[in-house]
Amino acid sequence: MNRTESSSPLDPEEEMKKDAVKYFGFQPKRDSASDARNALLVVAALVATVTFDKGTDVPGNIRNGTARIIFIIANSIAFSASMSIVEYLTTGFPFKTEIYISLSSVCFAYGSGVSNHIEGVREYVLLFISLLLPFFASKVSRVKAWLH
């Protein structure tokens, strides 16, 4: 019986070479929900860290004009989405109140820092919408899941 006719799975190195995305992606039979949650928390925390830094200190080459507005909106959506993921994944954790206060405080600090780079009412409205968009999207998806 040759290797191709064998019913045994490929060894990990061969499987990785065959399809690295599938190999490193989440696999329910291999990965636990806890492992997935931990990985998502790390990614969300990294995204929140980077977007917080760049949101409160906009890069010098985009300080004016439309590019600045687009940057602030995109960065704010990414920040808010990552904070929403952290909030969602920490549901049921001990110290939930403290976690929620911390997340809310970081969001407030982000909004305060970004407001230094905003001019005019229209930009404040866009910032407000971009910060709330991921939270509303997660609530809508939860309601849709509940209805089905």
TrEMBL record:
<dbReference type="GO" id="GO:0005886">
    <property type="term" value="C:plasma membrane"/>
</dbReference>
<keyword id="KW-1133">Transmembrane helix</keyword>
<feature type="domain" description="PGG">
    <location>
        <begin position="34"/>
        <end position="93"/>
    </location>
</feature>
<keyword id="KW-0812">Transmembrane</keyword>
<keyword id="KW-0677">Repeat</keyword>
<dbReference type="Pfam" id="PF13962">
    <property type="entry name" value="PGG"/>
</dbReference>
<keyword id="KW-0040">ANK repeat</keyword>
<keyword id="KW-0472">Membrane</keyword>
<dbReference type="InterPro" id="IPR026961">
    <property type="entry name" value="PGG_dom"/>
</dbReference>
<protein>
    <recommendedName>
        <fullName>PGG domain-containing protein</fullName>
    </recommendedName>
</protein>
